[in-house]
Amino acid sequence: MSTTSPFKTVTVLGLGVLGAQIALQTAAHGVEVVAYDVDEAALEAGRGRLEAFARAAASEVADGDAYRAAPGRIRLTADLADAVGAADLVIEAVPEQLELKRDVWARVGDAAPEATVFATNSSSLLPSAIADATGRPDRFLALHFANRIWAQNTAEIMGHPGTDSEVADRVEAFAGAIGMVPIRLHREQPGYVLNSLLIPLLSAAAELLIKGVATPETIDATWRTATGAPSGPFQIYDVVGLRTAYAIASADPRAAAWAAYLKEHYLDKGKFGVESGEGFYTYR
């Protein structure tokens, strides 16, 4: 696939569920990609995700060959300075913990070229809570992707009051160049547009479950039947990943019971959702 991306080299920090998809989507559209994770074990797991997502995407899109070839075009490294040393754009997709993200961005800010643009894929944190840690807040914003990025191809672009508008324009152009539908937000909003709509649904489903009102299967079937939606909330949880759901719930005192439920019944048993083959449902 050809590209008119304003960024020629993109670094993705974190090869988890979404980080791997972001790296894959970017590489499939002809942009040079470097992917970073903390050690060789994490990189090996990330390589497996890249290959699995490439197979899934190739079976669903017209130009499947570009996705099949994309994992081989991505350079993996566990050296952060090496990862960002020549990057035009850095996209961070590390776990949803504010202090971790701030620490990562402080180190990236010290190592990346002065002209590099920084973007977080955080699903719930505001860019203004992270921006100063980068050392260059005017070049920092949020760029948020949805799961199954090749098909559910939204890219929400959300700056903070100090973001340079020219930087946001370039990130919007990049999103379009890699096959996304850019969604420009005019002010900061926890959860952007997508999660502002989605999280209340998922929270309501969680409350029904922990109260013992109905099973995940019944709740999902009710939602699908009544709305025509292809997936119910617990199917969505499995795709998003239960570790991400736990991280978000742990940061909200109102969701403490849900965080505890996820940990006891799923995370402690190695059930992380689609990525591990089992969550609320079992997957091949």
Automatic annotation (TrEMBL):
Coiled-coil positions: none
Residues covered by the 3-hydroxyacyl-CoA dehydrogenase C-terminal domain: 191-283
Keyword flag Oxidoreductase: yes
InterPro entries per UniProt: 3-OHacyl-CoA_DH, 3-OHacyl-CoA_DH_NAD-bd, 3HC_DH_C, 6-PGluconate_DH-like_C_sf, 6PGD_dom2, NAD(P)-bd_dom_sf
Keywords per UniProt: Oxidoreductase
Top EC category: oxidoreductase
GO molecular function, a single term: (3S)-3-hydroxyacyl-CoA dehydrogenase (NAD+) activity
Protein's UniProt name: 3-hydroxyacyl-CoA dehydrogenase
